[in-house]
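To close the chapter, one final illustration. This time we ask the reader to focus less on the individual chains and more on the assembly as a whole: which components sit near each other, and how the overall shape emerges from the parts.
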Amino acid sequence: MTNLEKYNQAFITALGVEEDMLATLEYQSVPQWDSVGHMQLIATLEDAFDIMFDTDDIIDFSSYEKGKEFMKKYEVDL
Amino acid sequence: MFFYKEIEKYGDASALVTEKGTVVSYEELTARADQIGKAAGQRCLVFSICKNVEESVIGYVGFLRNDIVPVLLSSDIHEELLADLLNSYHPSYIWAPVGQAGCAGTVIYRDGEYALHRTGLAVDYTLDSELALLLTTSGSTGSPKLVRQSWKNIQSNTESIVEYLGIVQTDRAITTLPMNYTYGLSIINSHLCRGAAIILTESTLLDKTFWTLLKTQQATTFGGVPYTYEILKKLHFERMDVPSLRYITQAGGKLVKEMAEEFNQICLKKNMQLIIMYGQTEATARMAYLPWQDAQRKAGSIGIAIPGGELSLIDAEGNPIEEPEIVGEMLYRGENVTLGYAKNRHDLNQPDENRGVLHTGDMAKRDKDGFYYVVGRKKRFLKIFGNRVNLDEVENLLKKEGIENACTGQDDHLKIYITHAEQEKEAVDYLVNHTAISRAGFEVRYISEIPRSESGKVLYSALEGK
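The assembled structure is written out below.
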């Protein structure tokens, strides 16, 4: 699996959304991505890439696209 | 006198601070509150749709100050559930945000983003003279059962909370919980009683807005359910710079011992206090608290009874347990024990059924120093992210939809076993759309047959690990 596939899979598993929804997905834009879903998503990404997010990055992780930028910071090339 | 009827004495002190930084003084709060109360007129029943915004709190204060009985409901309430409740309770008015789904009637008064709607439903019931407020117990499964709270209940519990938390007028509590949830409401009551301020926000601990507001508005306290503490842990609370916080509280379910110890250490380093508490809607809000001085040596304990209350244990035969370290059902006695339940409007004239004694349904033990430890529950329910979820209710809801199932699990993790794998999506969709149980709080598993005893009872123990 490529890193991008792993990244997408984390959203699909943690939030229970379909792949075609990902591009425009934002925090609280769907019922599944609420605060509880957010915690699941962060934990899933941390496990998938064996990283640990900083506080500010967890709070700023507000969309599928924005999240991609954060992944670079943790040396994950998508 | 009931404290809400005299809070105008705090005059120009700040009562509410909004997300935008607008300040509502006590003078303004009470004036606007009384306008809403007067618009509703004489004593009657009102559905108050809650959000952590000024109009919601002002309406609530207005109803309590004017002997009007509000039923506090979440603004996330499903349209169908609201319709069922309207049908069961026939409130005279609905106080709701403009555009609230399922809210009907003629608008007779407006304040900001909220409107008072006259429903026109028949008032074919009466309200008991002691009745002040109605709260839901299991909002998450949509049961219409409400808890009946009296003026005395609210007054007594609020005074106890103010006393044991040592709330002072300079305190500023920031909201982290819905105000229709007993714990969220008790924070509002106890601060307004003392002339302190409430910083209102709809944002969660995972929003930047929340932390910016907490810092700029110098919040001194907030409350959290066990899940809130999971989030704080994830956010590395120990590294956060939040010097204005004086203490934080925890209730709404059991915080595991290790987490209690860890957070107590973090709080000590931050020169703030962690106060673990215990309560139920049936006791207005709070029944026990762990004094922060004892937090470390008694980690895992819910502490001692609040001022004016009394905890005790009984065995299976109902006899009192005097010896330490023996498990029994925990009983609570105090003026905050509510009047009882209501299942529909015809129960609203019922007198006090509990007479100051509450069987908590929690199994607990007491140590030799008199501190209580909750070890389990008598009935089948879980706490999912702070909300009580009755497992039998979930089973019945799904059965009504034609889904054969059995529910079990632990707090924050409900397991639903279904016998037809193809019904998984249907079960998930039903729970997501018709209850407030968070998607992340449950899991659906397939099992070929539900294990049952010879008498047909579900053998939940046989489901463990399946």
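Residues 2 and 48 of chain A are 11 Å apart (CA to CA). Residues 35-49 of chain A form the longest helix (15 residues). With these observations in hand, you are ready for the problems at the end of the chapter.
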